[in-house]
Amino acid sequence: MLELRDIQTYYGAIQALKNVSLKIGEGEIVTLIGANGAGKSTTLMSICGVTPPRRGDILFRGEPIHRRSAEDIVRLGICQVPEGRHIFPQMSVLENLEMGAYLRRDADGIKRDIAEAFERFPILGRRRNQAGGTLSGGEQQMLAISRALLSRPSLLLLDEPSLGLAPLIIKQIFEIIKQINVENGTTVFLVEQNANQALKIAHRGYVMENGAITLEDRADALLSNEDVKRAYLGI
């Protein structure tokens, strides 16, 4: 579904990504793990057109997208939940969800998807008229994921969804990510510092260090890899 070929992304003169290549197949959960500052978020921003690569190719279903605008990329079916959630704090929960569907014109379908979001996260349904900025961190993450799903993405990009959340909420968020993949058939590219949780739900994984991919394997193999255990799992 998605392929990055020798991506080089820069911030001014500073090279953030160094010949990054990876593949994500239809229906997979693929995770990218690494330390803070390794280049994981830049990888997502390169895919989304926010920080286009200076060199290399990004292909979505075989078609190059690295010269397209961010809005065009969303129209293709790629949607990102950014680090820090970035909901609209002054808007209600319901209005935030409606913003996720701003490119759609099927009013009945939007209503059904909003009802499904409230079924998936009942707390959002109970707080549908509450301002997004008054929600807890975990509730805001639920809202951010639900808002992204309102665009009906075929590829969902998640940037550090566990960041700053309590362990019980983290467990719930990862269960929902798995559910979205299995029940909706949504392909997921998951960027995470919580390598243990990410590798438990992923099919495959990549390890990034200093802007470069240093290791790739099945998720279960990475969980048992001694180097990964020492560096990222605290074992």
TrEMBL record:
<feature type="domain" description="ABC transporter">
    <location>
        <begin position="2"/>
        <end position="235"/>
    </location>
</feature>
<dbReference type="InterPro" id="IPR052156">
    <property type="entry name" value="BCAA_Transport_ATP-bd_LivF"/>
</dbReference>
<dbReference type="GO" id="GO:0016887">
    <property type="term" value="F:ATP hydrolysis activity"/>
</dbReference>
<comment type="similarity">
    <text>Belongs to the ABC transporter superfamily.</text>
</comment>
<keyword id="KW-0547">Nucleotide-binding</keyword>
<dbReference type="InterPro" id="IPR003593">
    <property type="entry name" value="AAA+_ATPase"/>
</dbReference>
<dbReference type="Pfam" id="PF00005">
    <property type="entry name" value="ABC_tran"/>
</dbReference>
<keyword id="KW-0813">Transport</keyword>
<dbReference type="GO" id="GO:0005524">
    <property type="term" value="F:ATP binding"/>
</dbReference>
<keyword id="KW-0472">Membrane</keyword>
<protein>
    <submittedName>
        <fullName>Amino acid/amide ABC transporter ATP-binding protein 2, HAAT family</fullName>
    </submittedName>
</protein>
<keyword id="KW-0029">Amino-acid transport</keyword>
<dbReference type="GO" id="GO:0015658">
    <property type="term" value="F:branched-chain amino acid transmembrane transporter activity"/>
</dbReference>
<keyword id="KW-0067">ATP-binding</keyword>
<dbReference type="InterPro" id="IPR030660">
    <property type="entry name" value="ABC_branched_ATPase_LivF/BraG"/>
</dbReference>
<dbReference type="InterPro" id="IPR003439">
    <property type="entry name" value="ABC_transporter-like_ATP-bd"/>
</dbReference>
<dbReference type="InterPro" id="IPR027417">
    <property type="entry name" value="P-loop_NTPase"/>
</dbReference>
<dbReference type="InterPro" id="IPR017871">
    <property type="entry name" value="ABC_transporter-like_CS"/>
</dbReference>
<dbReference type="GO" id="GO:0015807">
    <property type="term" value="P:L-amino acid transport"/>
</dbReference>
<keyword id="KW-1003">Cell membrane</keyword>
